[in-house]
Design brief:
Blueprint (H helix, E strand, L loop, with lengths): L3 E2 L2 E2 L4 E11 L5 E10 L1 E11 L7 H9 L2 H6 L1 E7 L4 H6 L33 H16 L2 E6 L7 E5 L2 E3 L5 H25 L2 E4 L3 H6 L6 H7 L5 E6 L7 H17 L22 E5 L7 E5 L6 E2 L4 E6 L5 E8 L4 E6 L4 E2 L6 E6 L5 E3 L7
Helix pairs in contact: 1-8, 5-8
This protein binds zinc ion.
Zinc ion binds next to loops.
Amino acid sequence: MSLSLGTAKAKPGRLTYGTYDLVAHPTGGTDRLPVVIAQGDPRGPVFWLTAGIHGPEHAGLQVLHQLITRELARSLHGTLICIPALNPAGLRTMTRQAYYHDGDPNRLFPEAKPKRKLDPDMEPPSSLEVAYTRLFAEIRNTADYMIDLHNAWTGSVSFVFRDRVFYRNDRSAKQNRAARAAAEKLDAKLAEMCAAYGHSVVNEMGVERYLAEKLHRSSTSAAVNVAHIPALTMELGTGHMPDPNIVRAAVAGLRNVLRWAGMLGGYPEPITGIRIADPGFPCRRRSTPRVSQPCVVRHLVEPGDIVKKGQAIAEIRDIWGRPTGGKILRSEHDGWIIGRTHGIVYYPGTEVCGMAIKDDLPTVQPYPKDYWK
Ligand SMILES: [Zn+2]
């Protein structure tokens, strides 16, 4: 059976184009997702590549335009299904959200537990949530792998967010063992994909905050934890003005992942022109360190720097330029700097950096006991 998505139908050795109906407007017309299918030998795997779910994040769109060529289609063992703009409304208005859904669009994908019957006092799912649920069924039916492209923030390094793999641990011992074994197998694939891509790697946060932030309902966490498809989120540094070095390194990294998946020939390409942080131990994300008084900071670290606990991260002054607080804000962790946060003027409690801190949590974890209730 030939692959298709919306009006785009795969053809061996070709790029094909089409659209997928997303949200119908009350004013007539429909928001449609652009779809590009690149197919080589149709017997190979199916790899979904998506971008632009957050409107100000434009690098992924450019990466896909650079990656998806006729030459690539001809040399592929398998099929790429690409959506360069998952959130057309956000891209048009340069906002993170779509104006027809109040909330982060990347928290609308299905989760592992079955949906409860809708409480009539609660808001029903938005048109966008309904649409992404429908799109996710297409991913689940066809994808062997998935990568979703994002940007973190201005000046941040290029890195991969690796989701933790969760498993059910509340059934019979035999079922629990089987669920854990399957999760470990999937997690090993994620590690291999990260290594093939060759950029810095950041594990997602621990389970409680992750669930509280609804990160388990992101596109790639749903792919991993609901559909059990190896999937990663790539963060491509600065969003509005894509960094050409990161775009180049991401195209090379994605081609390397396709090689790892057996979909493209040749040796891995070197990843050059970007900083790659490898402190020698796994790290997870944390917004840290935070200031404890109103202040103006001067950062003393660069994105990609490896830092030790106690190392000076920023100089702290009041608005008159006098040293304040402890004068120096220090790192509370070993790890590395993903990027400095926007601006230099902060209220107490604000983080001055996004860091990747030493991660001692397992990448495979049981769902919390109360998750299934
Ligand atoms: Zn994003």
